[in-house]
Amino acid sequence: MIRKATIVVAMIAGLAALLVARPARALENCISVCDDAYCTVQHKHCVEFGPPPPAYGAIAYGSSSGAWGKSYHWGSQAEAERVAMQNCAQHGNDCAVMVWFEHKCGAVASGEGTAAFWALGDSENQARADAQNKCVQGGGKDCQVQVSQCSR
After folding, report:
1. Using one digit for the tens of pLDDT, what is the confidence trace for 76-98?
2. What is the distance between the alpha carbons of residues 58 and 85, in angstroms, rounded to a whole number?
């Protein structure tokens, strides 16, 4: 009788341990199947998480010097802009923050005879294409994307 009780207790403890361990395993699977570092998509074994942590980025550009600096995955807009400016200032003294973004992508394009143009997008390709188009529409010749960056 004592032996059966011990076996039953052991089985219950094993099941309890399995149930407690299962959500952690499900979260690991959820995160491993998501595209971004943060899982917001609900899969069959996933739970929906709260809002993602801040991920700011910025691009600084110097129109005369062609210098640029970028940053990504910072906790605030101010930090992202500061780092982008520091990176740009290493290569030119006419840098200015052109664009900042959170959980997006940014790009800066310029062409002969135009100012620099910036754009945002949900993907780097989208941001680059939009910046390029703005430059062409602004009358630029030989418009080129100078720099792009995503922060997710």
Report:
1. 999 999 999 999 999 999 999 99
2. 9
